[in-house]
Write a structure and sequence with these properties.
It is built from 3 helices and 4 strands; from the N terminus they run H-E-E-E-H-E-H. It has 117 residues and is an alpha+beta fold. Helix 2 packs parallel to helix 3. It is globular, with a radius of gyration of 14 Å.
Length: 117
Amino acid sequence: MAKLTLFDRRRRRVRSQLRARSGDRPRLSVHRSGRHIYAQLIDDAAGRTLAFASTLEKDVRGQTGATVSAATAVGQRIAEAAKAAGVDRVVFDRGAFLYHGRVKALADAARAGGLEF
């Protein structure tokens, strides 16, 4: 077996803890790259995506996704999309990304938009 990077080890550790605590709530998965930030609402039981938002969408595309303000906008959009899908309680999956900066801004905006996690 190949040696895992620290990033992969952190991702596996976070995901295993989420599965133990998730129950029947969907998972709000966050991914950030150098230029963009993405959020998905995933129903693991059914294996499908309920809602998504990112800085690649047409409304937000003019600005760069590598800022806290863009992450806040994506957090608000995912909260609206979750409400439209009938979801109000989620489990936050930060992946292997540390909970600060853009990831924290997205989470705070989603909470302000009405999501509970």
